[in-house]
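Good morning,

Attaching, inline, the C-alpha cells for the sequence recovery test we're adding to the shared suite. The designed sequence is right after.
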C-alpha cells in the first residue's frame, strides 16, 4: 500500500510523526509537502494529495493542517475524494466501514501523533462494508 501525505505548516510536525508510524507499518509514503514550518497555504497540499489518490498514484491519503478542517475542505474539492476528519477511533473506523473514506484529515494543533496514529490504524485495519453503504457512496461519487 502507498499513502500520499500532505500538510501546511500547522500540520507539519504531526505529519512527520504520522510518516514515521506509517513506515513502521511497512507502508510506502509519498510526502507531497510542505517540507518545513514556514507559512504556506493549505489548499495546495490538500488538492495535491486528493489528486494523487484519485489518479491512482497513491492508494489513500492523509492530510494535516492546524485543525484538519481547511485541508479537508481542499481535498474534498477533488472529485472522487472522500475525506473524513475523525475525532476519535470510532469515527475513523466508521469512515472506512460506511463511507469508504480514501483520505483522512487531522489537526496538528488538536491531536498528538500518538492519537492520530491510533485513528489511522483503525481506518487502515477496517474494511468497507459495501451493500447499502455502496449505494450511498455511489451517490456521493455522483455529486
Ligand atoms: C494556519 O494558521 C491554519 O489556519 C491552518 O493550518 C488550518 O488550521 C486551517 O484550517
Amino acid at each position: 500500500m502507498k499513502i500520499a501525505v500532505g500538510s501546511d505548516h500547522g500540520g507539519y510536525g504531526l505529519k512527520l510523526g504520522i510518516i514515521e508510524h506509517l513506515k513502521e507499518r511497512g507502508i510506502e509514503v509519498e510526502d507531497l509537502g510542505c517540507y518545513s514550518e514556514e507559512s504556506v497555504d493549505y489548499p495546495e497540499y490538500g488538492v495535491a494529495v486528493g489528486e494523487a489518490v484519485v489518479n491512482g498514484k497513491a492508494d489513500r491519503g492523509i492530510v494535516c493542517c492546524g485543525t484538519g478542517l481547511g485541508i479537508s475542505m481542499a481535498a474534498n474539492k477533488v472529485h472522487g475524494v472522500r475525506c473524513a476528519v475523525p475525532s476519535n477511533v470510532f469515527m475513523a473506523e466508521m469512515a472506512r466501514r460506511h463511507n469508504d473514506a480514501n483520505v483522512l484529515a487531522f489537526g496538528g494543533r488538536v491531536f498528538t501523533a500518538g492519537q492520530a496514529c491510533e485513528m489511522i490504524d483503525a481506518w487502515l485495519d477496517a474494511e468497507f462494508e459495501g451493500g447499502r453503504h455502496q449505494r450511498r457512496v455511489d451517490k456521493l461519487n455522483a455529486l
